[in-house]
Specification:
alpha+beta; Alpha-Beta Plaits; 4-stranded antiparallel β-sheet; 2 helices; 37% helix; 38% strand
Length: 97
């Protein structure tokens, strides 16, 4: 079993409130969950208006497949019209039993 873990840092340059940030995050998380069947949540920068840190995970029998899924999720977030700027991302594959 392979567990893919991805940390994504985003900037919301046009956002001015936490309420606006929550609306954008809800849109991102719902669309990613529905399209890629992964778990996604805000894991950092909760009180900052213009920064977001997302944690994304998937489980697969293949490390290569887990990496491909997470790479596609990052690409989807970056290229979709969410009015966000991708600052950084990091993918790690963990091997379990």
């Amino acid at each position: 079993m392979n567990i893919g873990v991805c940390k994504v840092r985003l900037r919301l340059p046009e956002n001015q409130t936490l309420k606006g940030k929550r609306q954008i995050l809800k849109s991102i998380t719902e669309r990613v969950k529905n399209r890629y069947n992964v778990s996604i949540a805000e894991v950092g920068d909760q009180e900052l208006w213009q920064l977001v840190t997302l944690g994304i995970t998937c489980v697969s029998t293949s490390a290569q497949h887990a990496n491909q899924v997470l790479s596609k999720v990052v690409d989807f977030i970056e290229k979709s019209r969410f009015d966000v700027e991708l600052l950084d991302y990091e993918i790690e594959i963990l091997h379990a039993l």
